[in-house]
Amino acid sequence: MKEVHHIVATAALLLAAGTTLRAQSVPASASPAASAMPAVLQNVGFEPPLNGQMPLDLPFRDQTGRSVQLRDYFQQQKPVVLAFVYYGCPMLCDQVEQGVVGVLRMLSFNPSRDYEVVFVSFDSRETPEMAAEKKKKALAHFRRPETDSGWHFLTGSKESIEAATKAANFRFSFDAKNNLFSHASGVMILTPDGRISRYFYGVEFPGRDMRLGLVDASAGKIGSPIDHVLLFCYHYDPSTARYSASILKIIRLGGVLTILCIVGGILISRRRESLAAARNLRQPLAGGLERGAR
Questions:
Q1: Contact, 255 vs 15, CB < 8 A?
Q2: In this predicted structure, which of 65-79, 185-199, 278-292 has the lowest mean pLDDT?
Q3: Residues 197, 79: contact at Cβ < 8 Å?
Q4: Which residues does 6 contact at the CB level (< 8 Å), separation at least 6?
Q5: Is 86 helix (H, G, I), strand (E, B) or coil?
Q6: Rg of the chain on CA atoms, in Å
Q7: Could you give the residue ranges of the DSSP H alpha helices within the chain?
Q8: Domain count, the chain
Q9: Which of 185, 261, 187, 263 is nearest to 27 (CA)?
Q10: Are strands 229-233 and 25-29 parallel, antiparallel or unpaired?
Q11: SS3 call for 9
């Protein structure tokens, strides 16, 4: 029991420390009541229309500064993995990028040969130099330098960004006070002709689902809608944002549930060990009594 008390005390300290931190991402339903959402998130969302056509003639610049169109990545009958991020994001976008790279690294398929990977910045102020730095980090993490030509990090004008994000129903807002964007996280798989075949929410993506999604998209198949559970990324001023208290409640509740599971597991394990020890003790005693009776 001393170990249990120690675990509970340690976890309580961690929870107390956690309440002093700023929450920067929060799981939420994709369509909560507006009154339940902070103002900064009320117009933020990501609900890609399955079988919706992405506008492929939109102009962008790639990480080298070259003028390109989305169509350039749909000319070889390969599926395309596409995610909206912004390269200056200090929070969720890095995790989305790492999640995409991580899950694709699990597959035997290779970018360029089997599919294309496209990241589109929704911040029109960002530059090809920033995109090049992101590509460098992605390739270092992916560890297959021969796939370089299959990775594309784009920047573009406000008009191109608005058209692309509107087609994917990806909605974001800009917090001028903090110079940061509020946005949701996810990734899409597009068919070779640019239709939305499948999408995944969050920052970690199942390897099996990603593999099947690429296979289906390559054949032009369209998947089914998934549960709308989003991770929102935004930065806020804790002195004015009422939503901070709700986030801390979520963090505390998750911590409490984790502690209860750990303590419950320890108690169950200890109970089983005690019962097993009691059974082992009774067996020699019973044998001795039987021999004594003889």
A1: yes
A2: 278-292
A3: yes
A4: none
A5: coil
A6: 25
A7: 2-18, 92-105, 128-142, 158-167, 207-218, 243-293
A8: 2
A9: 185
A10: antiparallel
A11: helix
The angle that helices 2-18 and 243-293 make with each other, rounded to 10 degrees, is 170
Residues 86 and 211 in one domain: yes
Helix (H) or strand (E) holding 220: none
Mean pLDDT, residues 3-19 taken together: 46
Amino acid at 236: Y
Give the Cα-Cα-Cα angle 115, 201, 179 (nearest 5 degrees).
100
* Arithmetic mean of pLDDT, 93-103: 90
> Can you give the pLDDT at residue 155?
98
Do 43 and 133 fall within a single domain?
yes
Higher pLDDT, 112 or 227: 112
Task: Say if residues 113 and 218 touch (Cβ distance below 8 Å).
Answer: no
Q: Which residues pair with 45 in a beta bridge?
A: 171
pLDDT at 205 over 50: yes
The answer on pLDDT for 238 being more than 60 is no
> Is the same domain home to 187 and 148?
yes
Q: Which domain holds residue 100?
A: 25-237
Cut 0.90: pTM above it: no
The answer on 97 and 184 residing in a single domain is yes
3-state helix, strand, coil in the chain (%, to 5): 45, 20, 35
DSSP β-bridge partners for residue 84: 120
Looking at this protein, which amino acid is placed at residue 60?
F
Point out the least confidently predicted range of 36-50, 54-68, 191-205, 249-263.
Answer: 249-263
The CA distance from 98 to 103, in Å, is 9
Taking only the tens place, the pLDDT of each residue in 126-180 is 999 999 999 999 999 999 999 999 999 999 999 999 999 999 999 999 888 888 8
**Domain identity same for 34 and 14:** no
